[in-house]
Write a structure and sequence with these properties.
This protein is an alpha/beta fold. The protein has 16 helices and 13 strands.
């Protein structure tokens, strides 16, 4: 009889690469999985990562607000009593909160937190989390630095493990013609910034830098838009006459990975507004896209990124004001030996450390019990 696992997340799981690779891993290990999640907006992106299997049941919820929370709880309860799981994996706080109503000391309960913060608006959530995690068997967090910080803030000392947000060694990019995305694009004639269109990511500052580029490369920004920020960027481009900037909204993973695979370099820039943005070293999904693709990246001058880059040398540190960015881009493009060195360092980092197989190895015995 296959072991049964319930995974629940109050979000579209397609945005969490480690969760997708975890599901694939569990399918390969012949586990029977029920995934309870919010509506998956783009099914083709979900199945770009996930192999279809009779051992995976996906229950999507299309409701929001209090009604959505009610359906989330009821669905978890019904699934719990139908499947009688051996393991329950709660992704992020909301799932943890509702999972507490199903607590059973005979169930292996894992809390996987991708994104916590200690801002004032989350004081109540964090107080509740401190209480609930006393009953959780083990906790996964996206990096060693976040584990250290979490232990200090949430008073949990044991069975907390880092799992960096990494790609699997077996992940394959599907073929797609770059010209279909934009006719101006061709192999290695652009730098890329993949990720959400939203404030706090230096998008406007980065876009303005292209106005003073003295090389023939483009900058491609692509990803999902929040709060109308893509449209804001379109207006910003027009206002500042940014001819080297290409903006792409809500692209599929098929296009995303072709853009990634043909780029010169990437950007993983974060304004220091919360815990996550301050502790992105080695675990930023943007950064790990670039490591997987074997291309160098430009990252912030903060302690966590500096510590990461001192060890792995995959990236180029830039001032938080981006004042030195263009100079460092030019140096990367002009010095071929330096560029090749960075490519080699990224490939080495992926093979040696930042791959899903290496990450899951340290926690597999806590999942497959």
């Amino acid at each position: 009889m296959k072991d049964r696992i319930i995974i629940s997340i109050w979000a579209d799981p397609t945005n969490y690469i480690n969760l997708l690779f975890l599901i694939n891993y569990l399918i390969k290990k012949k586990q029977k999985i029920t995934l309870i999640c919010k509506f998956i907006e783009h099914k083709e992106d979900f199945f770009y990562f996930i192999k279809k299997s009779k051992n995976l049941k996906v229950i999507e919820l299309n409701q929001n607000g209090k009604i959505g929370f009610f359906y989330f709880l009821i669905t978890k309860i019904v699934s719990f009593f139908k499947t009688r799981p051996k393991t329950v994996i709660s992704i992020n706080f909301i799932s943890l909160f509702f999972s507490r109503f199903l607590y059973n000391k005979n169930i292996n309960w894992i809390y996987y937190n991708f994104d916590f913060d200690i801002s004032k608006k989350l004081l109540l959530n964090n107080y509740i989390e401190k209480k609930i995690i006393k009953k959780v068997d083990c906790i996964f967090l996206p990096s060693k630095s976040r584990v250290k910080f979490y232990k200090k803030i949430f008073f949990r000392k044991n069975k907390i493990f880092p799992i960096y947000n990494c790609f699997s060694k077996s992940f394959k990019i599907q073929n797609y013609k770059l010209k279909k995305i934009d006719k101006k694009l061709k192999y290695k004639n652009y730098l890329v910034r993949l990720g959400s269109f939203y404030k706090h990511h230096y998008l406007k500052e980065l876009a303005l830098k292209t106005k003073f580029w003295k090389h023939d490369k483009y900058l491609v920004m692509a990803g999902k838009s929040y709060a109308g920020y893509f449209e804001e960027m379109i207006e910003f481009k027009k206002k500042n006459n940014l001819s080297k900037l290409i903006l792409l909204k809500d692209i599929s993973y098929k296009k995303w990975f072709i853009l990634l695979n043909n780029a010169v370099a990437g950007f993983a820039l974060y304004k220091a507004i919360n815990v996550s943005h301050n502790l992105m070293g080695g675990t930023s999904q943007k950064l790990n896209n670039y490591i997987f693709a074997g291309i160098p990246s430009f990252i912030n001058n903060n302690n966590d990124f500096i510590k990461f880059n001192n060890k792995f040398e995959t990236s180029i540190i830039v001032q938080n004001s981006l004042g030195d960015l263009n100079r460092k881009i030019n140096y990367l493009l002009q010095d071929k030996n330096y560029y090749r060195k960075k490519i080699k360092k990224n490939r080495s980092a992926f093979i040696g450390e930042f791959n899903f197989e290496k990450q899951i190895e340290r926690v597999k015995n806590y999942i497959l019990i």
